[in-house]
Amino acid sequence: MNIAQEPNELTATDALHCIKSGKFSSKDLIESCLSRIEEREPLVGAWQFLSRSHALEAADASDKSANRGKIQGIPIGIKDIFDTADMPTEYGSPIYKGNIPKSDASSVAQIKGEGGIILGKTVTTEFAYFNPGKTINPHNAQHTPGGSSSGSAAAVADFMVPLALGSQTVGSTIRPASYCGIVGYKPSFGLIDRTGVRTLAETFDTIGIFSRTVADAAYLASIIGRRPSLQLKGPASAPVNIGICQTPEWSAADENSRAAFSRAADLADNAGVNIKEITLSGVFDALASAQALITDFEAASSAAYELTYHRNKVSSRYIEKAEIGLSCTEQQYDDALLVVLAAQAEYSETIKEVNVLICPSATGEAPKGLEFTGDPILNRLGTALKVPCINVPGLTGKTGLPVGVQAIGGFKQDAETLVAASWLQEILKVA
Length: 431
Hints:
Layout: H1 12-21, H2 26-44, E1 47-50, H3 52-64, E2 75-79, H4 106-113, E3 117-122, H5 150-157, E4 163-168, H6 174-180, E5 183-186, E6 206-211, H7 214-224, E7 241-244, H8 255-270, E8 274-277, H9 287-302, H10 304-309, H11 316-327, H12 330-350, E9 356-360, H13 380-385, E10 389-396, E11 402-408, H14 414-428
Parallel strand pairs: 2-3, 2-4, 7-8, 7-9
Antiparallel strand pairs: 1-3, 4-6, 5-6, 5-10, 9-11, 10-11
Helix pairs in contact: 2-3, 9-11, 9-12
């Protein structure tokens, strides 16, 4: 840790150490984060709800508490599709303006139970799909931060908060993490309980974590996933075998994404690990299309109430996607599910050859403009396979905007994937 850093610039685990050792209090940390937010929020627009008094009261209570939780006094941003009993939860929709749920999402409750402080609710796209909110990319206000977890990614990238929760149904954690230059971790499907989180597509919805180091993401996941084995203790060891995989969607990657992918592969190779090129079989060719069909089919169902009773307040973009979903037949939906199952079975054999795959995280740098959150095509595979995916930051494109690479592991092999991603993050620091 660099002692010259302001508290808000520290990683969550470094800040936790400082609080526990008495170097500063939780209130000092919260005040530092709030100062950063006051300075930058008018530009970045990462927050949907924020109460300075609420945060400071929580920090005071934390500092006075005799019970010291695993994340005692650490501020965390929560994507505004997670229910919070003491803050509005609006799902990125005017239909739910001022809505206060009766209970917290299970992950939020677990954070509070371990002493974490919910700093506020971060901006989400409407119902966590494609219609964007107000957030900009903190690296360049002319560019999107990605979606749907726009506010969570931007808040962590801009040092407003060290940790934030998001979600991923297509590419809503990995893509904004790549665009904003931070760690985004989509765990294996079902690893973190989703009770109290707005549903988009039940087959794929997964809670995601944003942080500035893989170790921080692993630490929070170990708590809200109730999996202590995910914690990274000490420097991450190098994986024995790394697979380099372009995936069937390689044609969608631009020169920036391809250059980052090649650079990461070269750096890993130079570090002495065994590099193996992995070519996925034809079973995977239809996977992205199948994932898209399933998501649209289920998104039409998850918003049935809003589409029926409040259609005039639903965006044209969501209606368009829902209508695509409604036009899908039962047979098309079932066939798509079979494509996913076949690919999952094939992948479980493929991943046995290596510890982790390195793939592109996004098609390139964050696109210019705020009306489009970017193409998630390179995230559909990892989401459909339901495996752990981690955006590893450290590289940039031609204009200087971040471009990440994605570490993908085997289903429920999250601990091994996190170790490999943490090692890769250190390797990319020299790039």
